[in-house]
Automatic annotation (TrEMBL):
Pfam families: DegT_DnrJ_EryC1. This is dTDP-4-amino-4,6-dideoxygalactose transaminase. Belongs to the DegT/DnrJ/EryC1 family. The keyword Nucleotide-binding does not apply. It comes from Actinoplanes italicus. It comes from the Bacteria. Keywords: Pyridoxal phosphate. GO terms for biological process: polysaccharide biosynthetic process.
């Protein structure tokens, strides 16, 4: 089965992991700080590493002070963790509809949902294309809220010349194997605000405080540490950070390859009937994580089944979050975000990853042409 996404591992990645395994550190050690510094160069803001993209969101919401009685506005066109991380902290999740062309959250729809209880507005950079952060920033500032960017798809992308990671108050990354770079499992939170970043760092380390200037009882002894607020152990180990630093050195290569594959899809599929291709935006330079086409005329399920039967691992990204039973049981109903639901009904992600060969891409194109032409 040709996968829709997969990691790219070479000898430099293996060597970095082997060196870490031979060192004195397997969990938190010097490679964590090194990877965080390497991430800052790409993200444009200081970063704290965590165990995965889901825990990155949970830690970011905790750092933002999300709690019972708060509202978090986000998009339904995302993986469930964007919403569940806030719900786990007691917040009410409010879904705003998406832009028809990009499937990114619509700033106008966000503005219409904001109330005095809005604590966080959480955008998602769908398929690697950054959301419209300038418009979202205006809405967020007027609401007195915190802007969060879920950049699980978009590390290495830029918006109006600025790197993803420097656009929101808090930005979360995922380094799952299908993402733009990988640590196996892993994630990070970037922040342009030192106070929020400190809260993330403390939360991901079980809430432990060791800084003498922050201790309530600083004279207890050199061993002393305190917990002022509850946190969790979300620390990313040294051995995975070693892989992350090695992968970051290849990010420009990954970006170039994904851009070339995207351009080939654009060219080879341009005249296929019943197919709508993803849009290009002039104000962003994305690392294209997904290649999401839209299958028209109600044929998405047929095309999905026939491509999978042919050994081509297409995917659907995503089921609208509030369709999940956990949200249905909370009273959310279908029809809330009609643009997102129409997008979902047609969306199909074609294989896209750095090591995808031209011949395998040609196979995808030929199979899709054959199905839609029949």
């Amino acid at each position: 089965m040709l996968p829709y996404g997969r990691q790219s591992i070479d000898d430099s990645d293996v060597d970095a992991v082997v060196a870490a395994l031979g060192s004195d550190w397997l969990t938190t050690g010097p490679r964590v700080a090194r990877f965080e510094a390497d991430l800052e160069e790409v993200a444009g803001a200081p970063c704290v590493t965590v165990t995965n993209g889901t825990t990155a969101l949970h830690a970011a919401y905790a750092a933002a002070g999300v709690t019972s009685g708060d509202e978090v506005v986000t998009t339904p066109m995302t993986f469930v963790a964007t919403a569940s991380g806030a719900a786990l902290l007691g917040a009410t999740v409010v879904f705003a509809d998406v832009e028809e062309d990009t499937a990114n959250i619509d700033p106008a729809a966000v503005e219409a949902t904001v109330t005095s209880r809005t604590r966080v507005i959480a955008a998602v950079d769908y398929a690697g294309v950054p959301a419209d952060y300038d418009r979202l920033r205006k809405v967020t500032d007027e609401a007195g809220a915190i802007l969060l960017g879920d950049a699980a798809h978009s590390i290495g992308s830029t918006y109006r010349g600025r790197p993803v990671g420097s656009l929101a108050d808090l930005t979360t990354f995922s380094f799952f194997p299908t993402k733009n770079l990988t640590t196996g499992e892993g994630g990070a939170v970037a922040s342009i605000r030192p106070d929020l970043l400190q809260r993330v760092r403390t939360f991901r380390t079980v809430g432990l405080v060791r800084d003498p200037d922050r201790l309530r009882h600083p004279d207890e002894g050199g061993w002393h540490q305190e917990v002022h607020e509850f946190g969790l152990n979300y620390r990313l180990p040294d051995v995975l950070c070693a892989l992350g630093s090695a992968q970051l050195r290849r990010l420009a290569e990954f970006k170039t390859r994904r851009a070339r594959l995207t351009a080939r899809y654009d060219e080879l599929l341009a005249d296929v009937p019943g197919l709508r291709l993803p849009v290009r935006r002039s104000d962003v330079d994305p690392v294209r994580h997904l290649y999401p086409v839209r299958i028209l005329d109600g044929r998405r399920r047929e095309v999905y089944d026939r491509l999978r039967a042919a050994g081509i691992g297409v995917q659907v990204n995503y089921i609208p979050v509030y369709w999940h039973p956990v949200f249905e049981d909370l009273g959310y109903r279908r029809g809330m975000c009609p643009v997102a639901e129409r997008f979902y009904a047609e969306e199909l992600s074609l294989p896209l990853f750095a090591d995808l060969s031209d011949s395998d891409q040609d196979r995808v194109v030929e199979a899709l042409r054959g199905i839609l032409g029949s």
